[in-house]
Amino acid sequence: MKTILLAACFLLLAAEAQAVSRYDPTRMSCERVQATIARQGAVILRYQSARVPGLPLYDRYVRDERFCNAGEVRSRAYVPSADTKSCAVYVCKRPDFDHFRRRFLRRH
């Protein structure tokens, strides 16, 4: 019984991973990148590093926090696109509570 339950969990995880589409933002305009994320909710964008030749960079970009895991928040990020070097998008990140605490302590 445990084996069947474990296998079902792995199948659900695999299905969720397959559901996210992958794109190369450098072959799309910034407007199209943003529209694709807005339409699909979450996508993986993969592109080459500008600083390290041949190094692929990728991440999961989201429309809003509903597509983030529990405990994560939406944070602004930038990716290259066909028409600009810095297209504004959003990623999910864990909040940096130490950063907020340091800012609060500086004020008081």
Give me the side-by-side strand order of the main sheet: 1-2-3
Low-confidence stretches: none
Oligomer: single chain
Radius of gyration: 18 Å
Instruction: Please state the structural category.
Output: alpha+beta
Secondary-structure element pattern, one letter each = HEHEEEEH
Instruction: State the domain count.
Output: 1
Largest sheet: 3 strands, mixed
Care to describe what's here?
The chain has 108 residues and is α+β, with helices and mostly antiparallel strands. The chain has one domain. Helices cover 36% and strands 29% of the residues. The chain has helices at 2-18, 30-40, 97-107, and strands at residues 21-23, 42-48, 56-62, 73-79, 87-93. The strands form two sheets. A three-stranded mixed sheet has the order 1-2-3, with helices on one face. Strands 4-5 form a two-stranded antiparallel sheet. The longest helix is centred in the first third of the chain and has 17 residues, at 2-18. Keywords: Signal. This is KTSC domain-containing protein. Residues 1-19 form the signal peptide. It comes from Mesorhizobium vachelliae.
Task: Present the secondary structure layout.
Blueprint: H1 2-18, E1 21-23, H2 30-40, E2 42-48, E3 56-62, E4 73-79, E5 87-93, H3 97-107
